[in-house]
Sequence to fold (267 residues):
Amino acid sequence: MVFSRTACFRRLFGMTRWIGVWALSILIIWDISTVWSLDLNLPETAYQGDMVVGRSEPTAEIWIKGKRQLMGPQGYFVLPIPRDRKTDFRVTVKSKAETRSRIIRILAYPWRTQKIKGLPQQYVTPTPEQQERVISDNRKVLNVRGDHPYPIPFFIRKGFIRPVNGTVTSPFGLNRVLNGKPKNFHSGVDFAAPIGHPVRCPANGIVRLVDSGMFLMGKTLMIDHGLGVTSIFIHLNAITVNTGDLVRQGELIARVGKTGRATGPHL
Fold:
């Protein structure tokens, strides 16, 4: 599963920082080390891949590197810290009366390396035709991530729950070597679970994408939780919701599978 506004999720489900291997696949686009801050009392430090959730006056503006950040009607905003960020994070707050800045010092996280063998070679070095499919699939996901129609953060009140009860087999952020070939870092969290195991909605949201045949991700489901925070569930066996559905925390949304690039059943 992967959560995103493009960071990670080490603590998204109340987890400590896992440094090991997992096995189910969800894409949760943010390693969410959720740090709450009110009235711009932002933390002094954050780890690479953390997600900082803050709150300010609803009429204020939050800026990072010249880009205005999304803000909900109650003043909540989200600051995703990229997984490989090495420099400090400057947050600028603008209101009618004044402009202020805060610095968040970024701490390095000891990302480990995971080696996976036995994958069909087409999933490691795809043909040009297969690579075109991968590009097309990624474009669908990026289109959803780049569109933010829901400024209300549905996850604020209840946070996130684990979508399955399986053991984490591969945490977010691992450097990955597939069949001996270095690849991109692991951008999700894998949970071990048998085929058909129920997948529950981690937080309230709206279904933005349902796809039954992505090349690497297999059957894929994507939920928008507001403020640009999304979750993606991949390698599924079945999806029980449709695009546009309003889904509630704990609701059955899919079942675990091993579609796409997967060595066995997992989320």
The mean pLDDT is 82. The chain has two domains: 31-107, 113-256. The two ends are 6 Å apart (CA to CA).
